[in-house]
Design goal:
The protein is mainly α and 377 residues long. It is built from 14 helices and no strands. Helix 1 packs antiparallel against helix 4. The chain starts with 33 loop residues before the first helix and ends with a helix.
Length: 377
């Protein structure tokens, strides 16, 4: 089976319709973009601070030390998850091969994505459950896990906890479920288009054909599905941001017409006039960062600490809830009524999360990535 890897040094020879045909390519194969690493790292830190403030017993006290700053991060910080959604769509566009895929290819690609997500995720779940049960007798308040069942754990193994109504054992892991749903939807659409193409004797395997399907789905999501909060356990709620990232990726690769991404962005932005949502605005800004940054400064130099932060951002996203809970609980008696100590405890929790994320990345996530690559995925 041929490796499912992107080829960016030439235009996609397939699927270039008159409507969404290829444009100019601005990015090359094999590049790792420091700008995106920096953005992911900063966004992950904002999410950590958001959860530190949310789960700390002394958050109101800490806010007195930095009036409105922490509360602002708490209130708006969760919106930066849409940066990860846009970046996730972008990464999927980059990985789409130039040739049709088989059902076996699709299953293999989905399995590779599951492995990348699941290895550090399952290690985190094991640590969270083990630590939670070991300190249960000490009456930790609030507890790390509100409830637990083996069925709930089984649902977590397949990233189905929200759909099956169990809820998440750890903060933020709902995002992983959405990411995997989008990969499955993307591959399913690709296979269906190829099947239709064979029936009508046309080539519908490329990004152009995919764009014709994803473009309206993303806009329906932005204008309708994402305005119903009950839909947020399904990928359709987030399609606007995911498709935005996919389209900007294909645009930079020159695999679809240069007007597609601007047209989609304008249609998304127009929805804010009807119903302003901060998450949609963050998605649009994130896509502009990708487009402008990689088109004009693809080799932008970024300080090494920020590049490192981007590399460990996924591990940080996973492990911070467990570490924050332990650190904040342990320091709570020391805080007393001091706003400074309350704020200092949050800083300690944040730094401890960075250390734990580094360990999870180097011991689990990075080896798993190397293993998946060794299989040719």
């Amino acid at each position: 089976m041929e490796k499912l890897v992107p080829s960016f040094d030439r235009l996609d020879p397939k699927g270039n319709s008159a409507l969404f045909g290829a444009g100019s390519s601005y990015i090359q194969a094999g590049q790792r973009f420091a700008l995106l690493d920096m953005c992911k790292g900063i966004a992950a830190c904002i999410i950590v601070v958001h959860h530190v403030f949310e789960y700390s017993l002394s958050s109101a006290l800490a806010d007195q030390f930095a009036p409105h700053v922490l509360y602002g991060i708490y209130y708006y910080g969760l919106f930066v998850v849409h940066l990860f959604l846009v970046f996730g769509g972008f990464a999927l566009a980059m990985a789409m091969p130039d040739k049709p895929i088989t059902t076996r290819d699709a299953i293999s690609t989905f399995g590779a994505r599951y492995a990348r997500l699941a290895a550090p995720y399952l290690v985190m779940l094991f640590l969270l459950i083990t630590v939670s049960f070991s300190i249960l007798s000490r009456g930790m308040n609030p507890p790390l896990i509100d409830s637990f069942s083996w069925w709930q754990l089984l649902a977590h193994l397949f990233f189905l906890q929200d759909i099956l109504g169990f809820g998440n054992l750890s903060a933020g892991t709902w995002y992983l479920c959405i990411d995997l749903q989008y990969v499955a939807l993307f591959l399913l659409i690709q296979l269906l288009l190829q099947t239709i193409g064979r029936i009508v004797n046309q080539d519908f395997s490329g990004p152009a054909a995919m764009s014709i399907v994803l473009f309206p789905l993303g806009l329906v999501s932005t204008w309708s599905w994402s305005r119903v909060l009950e839909n947020d356990i399904y990928v359709f709620y987030f399609l606007g941001s995911l498709v935005l990232g996919t389209l900007v990726g294909w645009t930079l690769q020159g695999r679809i017409g240069s007007f597609v991404f601007p047209a989609y962005s304008i249609a998304m932005a127009t929805s804010l006039v009807v119903d302003f949502r901060g998450r949609v605005l963050i998605a649009l800004v994130s896509s502009l960062i990708i487009y402008v940054g990689l088109r004009f400064w693809p080799r932008l130099r970024v300080p090494p600490p920020l590049i490192w932060l981007g590399k460990v951002s996924y591990s940080l996203f996973l492990i911070h809830y467990l570490v924050n809970g332990l650190v904040l609980h342990g320091l709570n008696p020391w805080i007393g009524s001091s706003p400074f100590r309350a704020f200092a405890s949050m800083v300690v929790a944040f730094l401890a999360s960075l250390l734990a994320a580094s360990a999870l990345y180097y011991w689990v996530e990075a080896p798993c990535q190397r293993w998946v690559k060794s299989l040719g995925k």
